[in-house]
Specification:
The longest helix has 28 residues. This protein has one domain. Helix 9 runs antiparallel to helix 10 and helix 9 packs antiparallel against helix 12. The chain is mostly helical. It has twelve helices and no strands. It comes from Acidipila rosea. This is CAAX prenyl protease 2/Lysostaphin resistance protein A-like domain-containing protein. GO terms for molecular function: endopeptidase activity.
């Protein structure tokens, strides 16, 4: 017979992955790795014959202003973060990284066309809404594209591959589940109800994920609130896709399709980036 004088069962451990501790660890590891990747890119660039006699300060300026050097440097940094993250959390979780991070590629495969359509609709919808919001005339990301066809193509390829992969890993792979699983833990402890989780916890988690996601892109749009609002809306869609499908791969597909719409109009307008001068008109 149960003895009511005995203490109750211990509160459930925070076992769902990734929890907020995992998210914090990811960002603590990723930020210095991004800096290390940029530094490694500087060293590699300085060893190239064309830059061998240039100063490091000059190379820093070139990386910041020329996508032909800046994008490969950013890609190397992203690759470094991705490799270390997979190895670290595979050891920590003692299971394949794809399982712990809820990659769930089969979901993305089954719904691939639908996910692409969602991304395209969000992108074209934002283009229409943007006509009614204050938008910067010459945002830095557009100015970067105008400098060379090669740089523009690198930005396009990076924007639909490495960029959505790492951004989804950071924000929908770690940060969003970190918040949501914290609220789920509170529910398992009976501190909050399931309805509170659904109507408060999940919306708050999406908001807390979308704010830093939007601010990450502030430099690309001169900090203008119009495009930042639209980017925040994109993040909400990506969060909903990630939660409904339980698939990080699914949100990555939507993200890549959305990013493609950012380049599609320019690609057509400039005849495949061959006549970038048309953007000045």
């Amino acid at each position: 017979m149960y003895d009511w004088a005995e203490p109750g069962p211990p509160a459930p451990a925070l076992q769902e992955k990734p929890h907020f501790g995992h998210a914090a660890l990811f960002f603590l590891v990723a930020l210095p790795l991004l800096a290390a990747g940029q530094y490694l890119s500087l060293v590699i660039a300085h060893a190239l014959p064309v830059y061998r006699h240039k100063s490091y300060s000059h190379l820093v300026h070139v990386m910041a202003s020329d996508a032909r050097l800046g994008i490969p440097a950013q890609a190397l940094a992203y690759l470094l973060v991705g490799l270390v993250t997979v190895l670290l959390f595979r050891l920590l979780w003692r299971e394949p990284f794809s399982i712990g991070i809820h990659w769930n590629g089969q979901q993305a495969q089954r719904r691939f066309l639908s996910l692409v359509v969602i991304g395209l609709l969000v992108g074209f919808g934002n283009t229409i809404i943007g006509n009614y919001l204050p938008m910067p005339k010459d945002p830095p990301i557009l100015m970067d594209m105008m400098k060379s066809p090669g740089g523009a193509w690198l930005m396009l390829v990076f924007g639909i591959t490495a960029a959505p992969l790492l951004e989804e890993l950071a924000f929908r792979g770690f940060l969003l589940p970190g918040f949501v699983n914290t609220f789920r833990w509170l529910m398992h402890k009976d501190d909050i109800s399931r309805s509170t989780l659904n109507w408060v916890g999940i919306p708050v988690s999406i908001l807390l994920t979308s704010l830093p996601f939007a601010m990450l892109h502030a430099g690309q749009v001169s900090g203008a609130w119009g495009p930042l609002l639209l980017i925040g809306g994109v993040s909400v869609v990506l969060c909903v896709v990630r939660l409904l499908t339980d698939s990080l791969a699914a949100s990555a597909v939507v993200h890549a399709a959305y990013n493609f719409t950012l380049f599609a109009g320019i690609l057509i307008q400039t005849d495949g980036f061959r006549h970038l001068g048309k953007l000045k008109g």
